[in-house]
Structures are given as C-alpha cells and as structure tokens.
Amino acid sequence: MPGNDEKIIGFFGYLPPSKIVCDYDACIIAGSEAAFKRYLKLANHPNSDNVIIKKTRLIEVLRGLSLGAPYSFDKEAYARFYPLAKKAGLDVSEANFKAEQPDGEIEFMTIRPNSS
Q1: pLDDT at residue 99 greater than cutoff 70
Q2: 76 Cβ partners below 8 Å, 6+ apart?
Q3: Any bridge partners for residue 15, and if so which?
Q4: Residue 116 pLDDT > 80, yes or no?
Q5: At what angle do helices 75-87 and 58-66 cross, to 10 degrees?
Q6: What is the rounded CA–CA span in Å between residue 83 and residue 92?
Q7: DSSP character string of 13-41
Q8: Is the pLDDT of residue 42 over 80?
Q9: Which DSSP string do the residues of 70-109 spell out, in sequence order?
C-alpha cells in the first residue's frame, strides 16, 4: 500500500518537452484522464491531440506548491487532495463546488502557495 506521498491525486497534461497545460497560470489537475480530455475539448486547447496526459501524485503536487506553482483541481481531484493536504499540514480551504454544473462547464478549486 503506497504512503500518502505516493497517492494519485489526478491527471495533468503537457506538451513535450515541458509545457504544462494551465488554466491561466495554474496547472490543471483533473480527477480522471477522461475529465482532462473533456477540459481540453471545452477549452478548445490548441494542439490538444499532442497533449500527453499523466497521473500526478501528492508528492509531485506538494513539490510544485513548495516551488511556488499554483494548481487548479476539479471536484474529483480536490476530493483526493484536500484530506491529504490537511494531513500534511497545508493551510487549504474546503472546496465549495456547485452541486450541479451547467452542461459544458467544469469548476476548479485553485490553490496558490503563500507568498512570503
């Protein structure tokens, strides 16, 4: 059984060699590969056929946050991230996702590292 650091939070995408798919400046983390593909379609993302979608683990998200990177999670990914982040001592808020999403909409919870 993997430790919390190795738990999969969701999926992110990038265009090789290293251009991460973002919503403005925040890295998108979707709860499933299908949800990430749906986001790409809805956003009419250029080169979406070339985006590589990969799993991301808690340790990778924590490392990114420690380096100052913001993350935007969909409902499913944030449900995985939130309890683990709290357990890791992060000051994160509970998400307030709408119960129903209008067709064609994806709601995100964005976490930005504290700037000191």
Answers
A1: no
A2: 10, 30, 31, 32, 35
A3: 19
A4: no
A5: 70
A6: 9
A7: EEETTTEE-EETTEEEEBSSHHHHHHHHH
A8: yes
A9: -EEE-HHHHHHHHHHHHHTT---PPP---SS--TT----E
